[in-house]
Amino acid sequence: MKRRAKAAAPKQAPQKRVVKTLDRALSRLGFCSRTEAAGWIRSGRVRVNGREQTDPEAWVELGRDRITVDNKPLFEGRKRYLLLYKPKGYLTTWRDPQGRPTVYDLLGKTREWIFPVGRLDLDTSGLLLMTNDSEFAELVTNPEFHVPKTYLVKTSTLLSDEQLAALRRGIELKDGLTRPAQVVRLRDSGGRTFLEITITEGRNRQVRRMIEAAGSQVLKLVRTAIGPIRIGRLEIGKWRELAPEEVRALVTYARRQAKRAARTGSRRREPPEPV
Ligand code: URA
Predict the structure, then answer these.
(1) 103 C-alpha to center of ligand 1: Å?
(2) DSSP states of the chain as a string?
(3) Which candidate among 82, 122, 209, 258 keeps its CA 20 to 30 Å from the CA of 223?
(4) Is 121 annotated as catalytic?
(5) At what angle do helices 161-169 and 206-213 cross, to 10 degrees?
(6) pLDDT grade, residue 29 (50/70/90)?
(7) Worst-scoring range by mean pLDDT, 54-63, 86-95, 229-238, 265-274?
(8) Which of 103, 128, 155, 221 maximizes ligand 1 atoms within 8 Å of its Cβ, making it the mutation to test the pocket?
(9) What is the pLDDT of residues 224-260, one digit of tens each?
């Protein structure tokens, strides 16, 4: 059986330097694809620490190097942390060549350089964090830090206890075995199963692929929590700033998880305390 290589656990609580090539940095921040970024860089629109940089492969450190596009700084200094209730039908990108709506259309005047922390599929709704803090984004998205993401799922068929057990144990996908997941059956109704699933990875379309591998399909997928941050009563399509204690709770939780994984090599996790 193919096993996913276990990510090397960090030796100490991460105070990560995020170093990337310039084209990757721009695409990672969600402004454009990597190819578009390379075009902007080669055409002289991008400066690093005041100097024009035309090499897409130049190394930059996010959060330290001052990067501008058309003289507009990527980071204004103040760290921003937003929680958006992404509706279905919105893309998690800066803009879409086909003109479909993106999550940035929901931000109104807050159209500054903030980027999504991970992605939700077009057809997935729910909790999306957005920030200009790349270290925070790394803590939340890097599977090394085991930050759990919780989803409500409606499946196209009734799932048996064996199918749920397979999802819990870890299920074989084409990119390897998934980590154990927490799965709770909420109810069965009208030939569908409604469940809550919590995973600690963020592979592409992971929940949909897990349900398919278990022999069913996802009809509806909503992300309700990331670590201790919950979507709560926010209306669909609306956003709010995270409270400082929410940011602290998430960062502390991720660091504790990473330390724990480094100490024990354990895949178990502490349940997050909701804030
Ligand atoms: N898993 C999915 O399949 N899709 C998402 O958008 C998020 C998790």
Answers:
(1) 16
(2) ---PPPPPPPSS-----EEEEHHHHHHHTTSS-HHHHHHHHHTT-EEETTEE---TT-EEEETTS-EEETTEES--SS--EEEEEEPTT-BSSS--TT---BGGGGSTT--SS-EESS---TT-EEEEEEES-HHHHHHHH-GGG---EEEEEEESSPPPHHHHHHHHH--EETTEEPPP-EEEEEEEETTEEEEEEEES---TTHHHHHHHHTT--EEEEEEEEETTEE-TTPPTT-EEEPPHHHHHHHHHHHHHHHHHHHHH-----PPPPP-
(3) 258
(4) yes
(5) 130
(6) low
(7) 265-274
(8) 221
(9) 999 999 999 999 999 999 999 999 999 999 888 878 7
**Active-site entry in 55, 65, 105, 121:** 121
CATH 3.10.290.10 fits 18-73, yes or no: yes
Q: Work out which ligand 1 atom sits closest to the CA atom of 209.
A: 3
**How many whole angstroms from 242 Cα to the centroid of ligand 1?**
22
What residue ranges do the domains of the chain occupy? 18-73, 78-275
